[in-house]
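Final report, closing paragraph on structural work. Over the funding period we assembled a curated collection of sequence-structure pairs, and we close with a single example.
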Amino acid sequence: MKKYYSLLVIMYLLIICPVLSANPKIVVGGSSELKSTIYGIWSEMIYREAFKRLNYDFEYVSFPTARVKYQFIKGKLDGEINRISSYNDGRDNLLRVEEAHFTMKNIAYFTDPELLIESWDSFDKIEKHVEYRKGSKILHDKIEPRVSRQNRSTVTTATQGMKRVLLGRTDIYIELEGTAHFVLNKLGENYDINKFQPPVVLHEENSYLFLHNRYHVLAGNVSLEIIKMKKEGVIEELRLLALKKYSIEQVESN
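Its predicted structure, as stored:
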């Protein structure tokens, strides 16, 4: 009987010890298409390292852009990744990690060589149809005041948006540079992507991680770690690693 109880104790310890020793996990959500780009790969590497330094595990899960917010509201996520600084406006349960991890560029893609686009203000004078990816707050805020309702629309994915320009179904598509680069590589297999005119940079925006406001202490600590990682050159090292990983994935997918 003594042996039996000893065996039970050992089995209990084998089961419970890994649980007790495991780090707490932070799960954040982001756009499916962005996660597959250099931005997604890079940001995941950055926060995996930052949270590791704070003895947390980190997971970045992806959904269609517009669904991320609702997964958070349902309580299935601890935060959202790769968002602009004002993303939590009107959302009291979201807290921004104050230090940005990197900057992203919004680019206008079009095929008409006569079309002149220099900045957001150019859209005040252009009578062309403009599309962007559903769920992008910054594009919604920039385009809606400048483009009439009949001349603007959204798409679900960047692939749809870029393809529609190539097929002449819309005039201008606006997308993040990294996401568009990923899509262009794919479309180049079946479409003449040389139809695109030189892309125009409309806007550069810092990108942030947002956490549920119950993590206010952790958010401050993460911000400090991002600052340290920048000073140490770790963020740049991870960018180079992300580029390498992205390139390998592209080769393997072709």
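The radius of gyration is 22 Å. DSSP finds nine helices and nine strands in the chain. We thank the funder for supporting this effort.
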